[in-house]
Design goal:
Blueprint lengths: L1 H18 L7 H10 L4 H7 L9 H37 L17 H15 L3 E2 L5 E3 H4 L24 E3 L4 H10 L4 E10 L10 E11 L4 H16 L5 E8 L2 E10 L16 E10 L1 H6 L8 E8 H9 L12 H6 L2
Parallel strand pairs: 1-4
Antiparallel strand pairs: 2-3, 4-5, 5-9, 6-7, 7-8, 8-9
Helix pairs in contact: 1-4, 5-10
The chain binds 3,4-dihydroxyphenylalanine (DAH).
3,4-dihydroxyphenylalanine binds next to strand 8 and strand 9.
């Protein structure tokens, strides 16, 4: 009786499984419960083993196992086939047509980032490493370590935002120079790009702006090295036909100090609106590192010398893109930014 029931179950359920197609694939789970579940048909039949005489038990037991594995395999084969089909359907549905024309909403680096990238590439190709420092800085690194003690008149040019007596938002990336000189062993060549802050606001000044600082410390550094380096930098940035003018200047951390002008890339020196008719544009400050600054940071000024330069990225981006109002960079007006691509 039990044997017949088992064979019948095998046949009936086998047929039922065969009938399940992809669209009603969930019914496989129902069949599983109906047959193998706690009150499933095979479970019920297995319980019948108890009442059989001992000599029949092995035979029936073997049959139960056979029916179980036959049906389980049938179900899992179907499940596997359905899973594969599901994957094929999904891939088909999610296929991306790479030949479809794209829309024109492609982004581009912000003009200031673009200038920074360009300058960084040039400097890295000349052997400089890139380092960054904190925007919230101590009075010591922003001024004192750069030979600008409290009450020094040069502080007036960099009126910035103090958080308390000793903490401020840095007014110049030169602060990173001071930090790096403390931890680096000469010779080294670094650039330090980043945001800087000053209490300044008009069409060419923004309270937040960007600078890039360069510092080289080695033996036998001279003004010739600085001039060569800056000439290469300016020509690569504005074009080979750019002419460069060096003027004496003053910074507490360099001695001697210079300011550097470049021929206006807009009119090539003839005079236009961008250069206010002068043909030249003032671009950066630089100089031979004051030996006092080297000593403050623990570098032997008898053995080593350095040169440094600092350049405003906003100003450079304004010149390169013929922009007359710095605020355009910070307005996030997509119509403006689209023209800068
Ligand atoms: N830190 C100066 C400024 O913000 C620019 C500068 C001048 C940087 C001379 C230098 C330098 O490294 O040597 O106005």
């Amino acid at each position: 009786m039990l044997i017949e029931d088992l064979n019948k179950l095998k046949e009936d359920i086998g047929k039922e499984i065969d009938k399940v197609n992809y669209h009603i694939r969930k019914t496989l789970a129902d069949i599983r419960v109906k047959v193998f579940g706690k009150s499933g048909s095979l479970t019920a039949l297995s319980k019948g083993m108890r009442d059989l005489p001992n000599e029949e038990k092995p035979k029936v037991g073997a049959l139960i196992n056979e029916v179980r594995s036959f049906l389980e395999e049938k179900i899992s084969n179907k499940e596997k086939a359905f899973e594969e089909q599901e994957l094929v359907e999904k891939l088909e549905k999610e296929k991306i047509d790479i030949t479809e024309p794209s829309n024109d909403k492609v982004g581009a680096p912000h003009p200031i980032s673009a200038v920074l990238d360009k300058l960084t590439d040039i400097c890295v190709s000349l052997g400089f490493s890139v380092v960054e420092g904190p925007e919230i800085e101590t009075d010591y690194y922003n001024f004192e370590a750069l030979n600008t003690p409290k009450n020094h008149p040069a502080r007036d040019m960099q009126d910035t935002f103090f958080i308390n007596e000793n903490i401020l938002v840095r007014s110049q990336t030169s602060a990173v120079q001071a930090r790096e000189m403390e931890v680096r062993k000469p010779p080294f060549k670094i650039i330090c790009p980043g945001k800087t802050y000053r209490n300044d606001s008009d069409s060419t000044h923004s309270p937040v702006f960007h600078q890039i600082e360069g510092l080289v410390v080695d033996e036998n550094i001279s003004m010739a090295d600085l001039k060569t380096m800056l000439t290469i930098l300016m020509k690569r940035l504005f074009g080979e036909d750019t002419t460069i003018r060096f003027r004496p200047s003053f910074f507490p951390f360099t001695e001697p100090s210079i300011e550097v002008d470049v021929s206006c890339p807009n009119c090539h020196g003839k005079g236009c609106q961008t250069c206010k008719g002068t043909g030249m544009l003032e671009l950066l400050g630089a100089g031979i590192v004051n030996p006092k600054v080297l000593e403050i940071s623990g570098i032997d000024s008898k053995k080593y010398r350095g040169f440094a330069f600092g350049l405003g990225l906003d100003r450079t981006a304004m010149i390169l893109n013929s922009i007359n109002n710095i605020r355009n960079f910070y307005r996030n007006d997509i119509r403006f930014l689209n023209q800068m691509k």
